[in-house]
Write a structure and sequence with these properties.
The structure is a homodimer. Chain A contains 15 helices and 16 strands. Chain A is an alpha/beta fold. Chain A folds into two domains: 239 residues, 3-Layer(aba) Sandwich (Aldehyde Dehydrogenase, Chain A, domain 1), CATH 3.40.605.10; 144 residues, Aldehyde Dehydrogenase, Chain A, domain 2 (3-Layer(aba) Sandwich). In chain A, the strands form four sheets. Chain A has a seven-stranded parallel beta sheet, sandwiched between helices. In chain A, helix 10 packs across helix 11. Chain A is globular and about 65 Å long. The first copy, chain A, starts with a helix and ends with a strand.
C-alpha cells in the first residue's frame, strides 16, 4: 500500500467519523448488537481465517506463547461478541455535560463531551483487539482506523469484514471500522504521521513501538506504557494480608503490566515477612539485596542488580529489597517506578496517606493487589488500554478517554468591550 | 549552554516539582504574594533590564509592533504583579476529587487532581509571559521551565530573578521557576526532547514553532494553534445583533487568535446584511466571493481566493462568502476552519442546535462574539493558552489544564480471583 492508499483510507475514516459524531446512542448500540450477532453466526469464517494465520505462524517457527495469543477458538469468538454487547450496555459518554455556568454578562457556557473523530490503533498479535477496539471506538462515536500485525492479518480482515457488515445492516457506515492491510514497517511510520486524519493514536505494543511513536508521530497519541509495579510492605502491615497481596500481585497473571515486579519490605518486619511469603512465591525466582539473601539464603535468592530493580519482568521473577523506612521505599519507587501502579500494605493511616500523596503513579493502592488497575476492575466496563502518561488520560482508559470536549456558548448578542 | 547544562536545569526543575507537588495552597499563595510585592518594589530593576532589550531590538531594526510587545512600563509591571495576586485568589485545582466510587468488592476508588510535575513553555517576545506562566504553574503545583526569546532575555532574567527571590522568602524553592538562558535554535530542539524531565510542553508561537514541535518533540505537549474563526449570519439572524457581533469579532482586537477572519452570510439576507455591516467595517479590507463583490462593489471588495478563506489574517482583513444554506456554511467551516472558535448568529433554535452539534471546534458560539474564547472571559481567572487540539485540554486552558489525575485505591486486603 502506498501512502496514497493510506491517505484514501484516512479520508474514508474521516467521513465515517463525521457521521458517527452525531449518531444516536440507539443507532450505535444497534450496530454493536448486529456486529455481535454476525460474529456468532459467521464464526466459522473467522476461525477459518485464523487457522490460516496460526498455521503460517507455526510454519514460521513462532513461539508457542505467540501462537497462543494469535489463536481464536469458538469460545474466544463468543467472548468477542459478548464484549461488543457489553460495550453496548455501557453509558454513552458523548453529550455528557462536564460542567456549565453563566458568566456575569449572561453568556451561558457548557462544556460537553464529543468524540475525538478518528482513533488510530497499532497493535500486535491478538485478533480480539480488532473487535474490542472497534466496539469502544464506535460506542464513543469515533471511527476506528486499525493497524494490526502481519501475523494476524487474515484473522483481522475476517473480523473487520463481519463487523462492517453488522454496522451496514443497521445503517451505520461500515467505514466506521477500517483496517490497514499494509502491515510493513515503512507504513507504520506513515500511519503515525497522518496528521489531520488521526485525532488520537493509541499504540499497543512494546518499547520499540513506543520509541518509534515518540520519534516519528506527528499525530496526538496516548502511551500505554510499561508497569514496573511495586508492593511495599510497611512495618505496620498485617503480614498475612501483605503475603496474600504480594502473591496475588506477582503470580495471578505475571505477563501483564499491572503484575508486581518488585517487593519492598520494611526492615522491622523483613525477616518475619519474607519467611512468611516465601512458600506462596514457591514458583517465583527471587532477586534480592544482601538483607534478603541473608534472610532467605543464597540458594533461594539471587543477588539483585539495579537492572533487576528497573526491569518489568512480565514473568515469574520478583526483585526484592529491604528498606529502612517509608522514605526509602518512596525514593526507591521514584527511582525505578514507571508510574503505573504502586501499592503499600499498612495499618498505619499516616503511612498510607503519605504513600498515596507522595508516590507519583497512575494508581496508588493501599491494602489491595496491584492487579486491580484495570478498566473492568475499576468499573469502566471495558478498557482500550492503561495510560502511563499524564496528559489527557492516566490509568485505565474507558470510553471517556476516547472523547474530547467542546465549549458551547450561548449569548444574546454579547460583544467584548 | 550545552545539553548537559539543560540537563542540569531539568534536574533542578524536577526536584522543585516534587516539593511543589505536596506544597499547601497557603504556601503557594504566600509565594505568589511575595513575588508580586517584590515585582513592585523592584520594578526599576526589571524596567532597566527591559530598556536594554528594547534598545537592542530598536538598534537591530525590529518592527515597531514587535518592540511594543517587548516593552514594559511601570503600569505593565504592576499589571504582572496584579496577575500573580489574581492567580493566588483562584481555587487550587490540586487535590480536587474528580470522582469517586466503591466497587462491589469493597475497593474504594477516588480520582484526584495532581500537578503534572514540570511544565515547559516556549514563548516569544512578551516578557509578561514569564510572570504569568510562572504564576499559573506555581499555583497548580508545577515547576516552570521557561524558554523565552533572545530579544527578551534580559527582561526575562530580571523578572525570573525577582520572582525566585519572592518564592525563596516564604520557603518555596526558587527552582520552581527556571529560565533557559541559551535561546539558540539548536537548544530549542533539545528542550523539546527532555523526556523524563518535562511532563507537558506548551509551545506559544507561530506555525514554524508548532511544526518544529510536531517533528522533534518527544515530550508530551499541548498545541496552542491558529484561529481561523468564522461568523455565520443565518437567514433568521437579528441583523443588527449580527452586525455588532461581526464588527466586534473582527475589529475589537484583530491581532489575536479569537478574532474573526471570515464572514459567511446566508443568501436570503446577504444584500441587506452586507450593506448594514459595511460602515462598521470601514477600516477593514474585505475579500469576498462574486456575490459579495456584486452587493458591495468591486471598489469595496477584493475577489477572495481559497488561500484567503484558509488564512488567519491577524489583521484588519476579512474574507466574506455568501452561502446558500446552513449546510453550506458548516461545510465551508469544515474545509477552512482550524477548530478554534466558530459562531452563528440566528434566532432559529434548530439552526443554532445544528451548528453547535455539527461544527467541530473548541468553542461554538450562538449570538456572541468570537472574542469571548478566552480564559478570563470563560471565568477561569487566567489562562496559559488556548488549545486547538482535542487531547487533554481543548479551548481556553486555566489551572486545571495544568494538572493530571491519579487514582487512589483503598482496600482491606482485596486480591484478584
Amino acid at each position: 500500500m502506498t501512502s496514497q492508499q493510506l491517505h484514501d483510507l484516512g479520508g474514508r475514516s474521516r467521513v465515517a467519523g463525521r457521521v458517527l459524531a452525531t449518531a444516536s446512542t440507539a443507532a450505535k448500540d444497534a450496530a454493536l448488537h448486529a456486529a455481535a450477532e454476525l460474529l456468532e453466526t459467521r464464526s466459522a469464517e473467522v476461525l477459518e481465517a485464523n487457522a490460516a494465520d496460526v498455521a503460517a505462524a507455526q510454519e514460521a517457527g513462532t513461539t508457542a506463547t505467540v501462537v497462543d495469543r494469535l489463536r481464536l477458538t469458538e469460545a474466544r469468538v463468543r467472548s468477542m461478541a459478548a464484549g461488543l454487547r457489553q460495550v453496548a450496555s455501557l453509558a454513552d459518554p458523548v453529550g455528557e455535560v462536564v460542567g456549565g455556568w453563566v458568566r456575569p454578562n449572561g453568556l451561558q457556557i457548557r462544556q460537553v463531551r464529543v468524540p475525538l473523530g478518528v482513533v488510530g490503533i497499532i497493535y500486535e498479535n491478538r485478533p480480539n483487539v480488532t473487535s474490542d477496539a472497534a466496539g469502544l471506538c464506535l460506542k464513543s462515536g469515533n471511527a476506528a482506523l486499525l493497524r494490526g500485525s502481519t501475523a494476524a492479518l487474515r484473522s483481522n480482515q475476517a473480523i473487520a469484514g463481519v463487523l462492517r457488515d453488522g454496522y451496514d445492516k443497521v445503517g451505520i457506515p461500515p467505514d466506521a471500522l477500517l483496517l490497514v492491510e499494509d502491515t510493513s514497517r515503512e507504513s507504520v511510520v506513515d500511519f503515525m504521521r497522518m496528521r489531520g486524519v488521526i485525532d488520537c493514536l493509541i499504540p499497543r505494543g512494546g518499547p520499540s513501538l513506543i520509541s518509534a511513536v515518540l520519534e516519528n508521530a506527528t499525530v496526538p497519541y496516548v502511551i500505554d506504557g510499561d508497569g514496573n509495579c511495586h508492593v511495599y510492605v510497611d512495618a505496620a502491615a498485617d503480614l498475612d494480608m501483605a503475603a496474600a497481596i504480594v502473591v496475588n500481585s506477582k503470580t495471578q497473571r505475571p505477563s501483564v503490566c499491572n503484575a508486581a515486579e518488585s517487593l519492598l519490605v520494611h526492615a522491622d518486619v523483613a525477616e518475619r515477612f519474607l519467611r512468611l511469603v516465601a512458600p506462596g512465591l514457591a514458583g517465583v525466582e527471587l532477586r534480592g539485596d544482601a538483607e534478603t539473601v541473608g534472610i532467605l539464603g543464597a540458594d533461594r535468592v539471587l543477588p539483585a542488580t539495579d537492572e533487576d530493580y528497573a526491569r518489568e519482568f512480565l514473568d515469574l521473577i520478583l526483585s526484592v529489597r529491604v528498606v529502612g523506612d517509608l522514605d526509602e521505599a518512596i525514593e526507591h519507587i521514584r527511582r525505578f517506578g514507571t508510574g503505573h501502579t504502586e501499592a503499600i500494605v499498612t495499618s498505619d493511616l499516616g503511612a498510607a496517606q503519605r504513600f498515596q500523596r507522595e508516590v507519583d503513579a497512575a494508581a496508588v493502592m493501599v491494602n489491595a493487589s496491584t492487579r486491580f488497575t484495570d478498566g473492568e476492575e475499576f468499573g469502566f466496563g471495558a478498557e482500550i488500554g492503561i495510560s502511563t502518561q499524564k496528559l489527557h488520560a492516566r490509568g485505565p482508559m474507558g470510553l471517556r478517554a476516547l472523547t474530547s470536549t467542546k465549549y458551547l456558548v450561548v449569548g444574546s448578542g454579547q460583544v467584548r468591550a
